[in-house]
Task: structure prediction
Amino acid sequence: MEEATRDGVAAQRERLMESLRIYGGHYAELSRRFAAWLGLHSTDATAVLEIAAAEERGTPLSPARLSERISLSTGATTALLNRLEAAGHITRFREHSDRRIITLRSGGHIQERADEFFGPLARRLDTAMSHYPPQLLEQIESFMTDLNSTMDTHLAEQGTATPRSPDSPGDRTP
Result:
């Protein structure tokens, strides 16, 4: 019985992960199209969206936090921010009492353009979600929070180590 339950959970996990992979592909394609629509490189558009989303949540990003969120080195992030600031897409502020801390803010037009581009999708998602009871959506939110926490923990534990090849000396037994 216990093995059957584990097999059922494993099968369900696989189905859910496949759905999330498909969603991830859709999200990546939507991001690519948004970048093209704005006339930006996809990394620049991703950064702009991260900055605008964090600002909308009331937790604006620092350059270091943006660097982590979009997986760029600090040097590459600096170059990206210079491009975005020169184009008027973002502004760097020293809002904190510690003047060394920089806060990133999106240009006013970015939120308007994002709303224009993503608005139709938001309305479609609202319609799709309206068919489900609020309690179920809350459970899904909770599940996604747990899933993301689990993934964050795994990634932190895994670090940036690269896998060794089977032919590596450390893998051989004497």
Remarks:
- Helices lie at 2-38, 42-56, 63-70, 74-86, 108-129, 134-158.
- The chain is about 70% helix and 5% strand.
- The beta strands are 90-93, 103-106.
- The first strand starts at residue 90 and ends at 93.
